[in-house]
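Forum: Protein Structure Q&A
Topic: Joint prediction for protein chains with partners

I've read a bunch of threads here and the consensus seems to be that you should model interacting components together rather than docking separate models afterwards. I'd like to see that in practice. Below is the full input, 217 residues plus whatever partners are listed. Could one of the regulars post the assembled result?
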Amino acid sequence: MTQASASPANVPQLDYLTSCALPTPWAQFTLHAFVEHATGKEHLAMVLGDVSNGEPVLARVHSECLTGDVLFSQRCDCGAQLEGALKKIAAEGRGVLLYLRQEGRGIGLVNKMRAYRLQEAGADTVEANLQLGFHADARNYELVQPMLRQFGISELKLMTNNPRKIDALTRLGFNVSERVPLLVNRNSFNNNYLNTKEAKLGHMMRPAETVAEDGEL
Ligand SMILES: Nc1nc2c(ncn2[C@@H]2O[C@H](COP(=O)(O)OP(=O)(O)OP(=O)(O)O)[C@@H](O)[C@H]2O)c(=O)[nH]1
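Posted by a regular:
Agreed with the consensus. Here's the joint model:
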């Protein structure tokens, strides 16, 4: 695998670093690592099957959530979405999951914890970010372009409930030919959070789109 290809000036510069096998409970993926020049952050891609054959690729662009992805937090749906996306890719036998180091919708882990404290005092997830002086969502998805291009991917079946993520990838030149809902693990701890994402961030969270009543995929 060669270095990530040269990008236009407005696309973040990224180096391809290395890869290894990554067995999971559902499939053996190949894990690829990149480093972003501007921040030094290491971003990851989990790839399964032949994704460069021109067929639309089942894809997840996942933002880091240490509390949800690793520490089993029920305050969000992130961990369940990560697991659900990997299971779907394994079931299809082909796909990609980008793991972007955009913790806390881009504000970082400790600021996300500060936002959680404000939420414990009554703010919702958007108000808490604003009270801390951040945008409601500080992420951008420009990194996705050199990462997916590295694997020859241009058409996506994107697993997301976030219409702004679809818009962002479309603006970057990807053809999002299908949206695959990823509605999992609604519970008493994250119910208000998910409702706020629908009301204020435009997420598509209708029950009719829920994959299964018990949260399993
Ligand atoms: N600032 C902040 N970030 C949060 C909070 N809860 C989760 N996150 C972060 O939000 C990001 C995931 O955002 P989501 O809105 O679940 O996912 P999305 O990418 O926008 O949409 P989907 O593709 O549908 O999952 C991760 O970076 C989490 O760390 C919160 O209350 N405040």
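Residues 78-92 form the longest helix (15 residues).
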